[in-house]
Amino acid sequence: MTQPAATTPSAPPAPPPEAVGPLMRSLSVLRELAAGGGRQPVGDLVRRTDLARSTVDRVLSTLARLGYVRTEGRDAVLAPRLLEFGNAYLAASELPDRLGPLADRLADELDESVSLAVPDGDGVRFVHQATRRRAMSLAFRIGDLLPAERGAPGALFADRWDAADWRRWRSRRAADPTDAGFPAVPPRRAEDGAGDDAGPGPDAGSPAGFEARVAAARDTGWSLDDQLIEPGLVAVAMPVRDTAGRPVCALSVVSHTSRLSAAELPDAVLPRLRETVCAMEYALSLPRDAASAPDTAPGPSHPAHATWMRASKQELGPEFVESMARGLITLTAFGAGRAELPLTAVAEATGLARATARRALITLEHLGYLATDGKLFRPTPKVLELGFAPLSGLTLPALAQPHLVALVERVHDSASMAVLSGDDIQYVARVPTVRIMSVNITLGTRFPAYPTSMGRVLLADLPRAELSARLARTDLAPLTRHTVTDPRQLLALLEEVRSHGFALVDEELEEGLRSLAVPVRDRTGRVVSAVNVSTHAGRCTADEAREALLPALRSAAAAIEADLWVAGRYARIPVL
Question: pTM of the predicted model, to two decimals?
Answer without folding.
Answer: 0.90
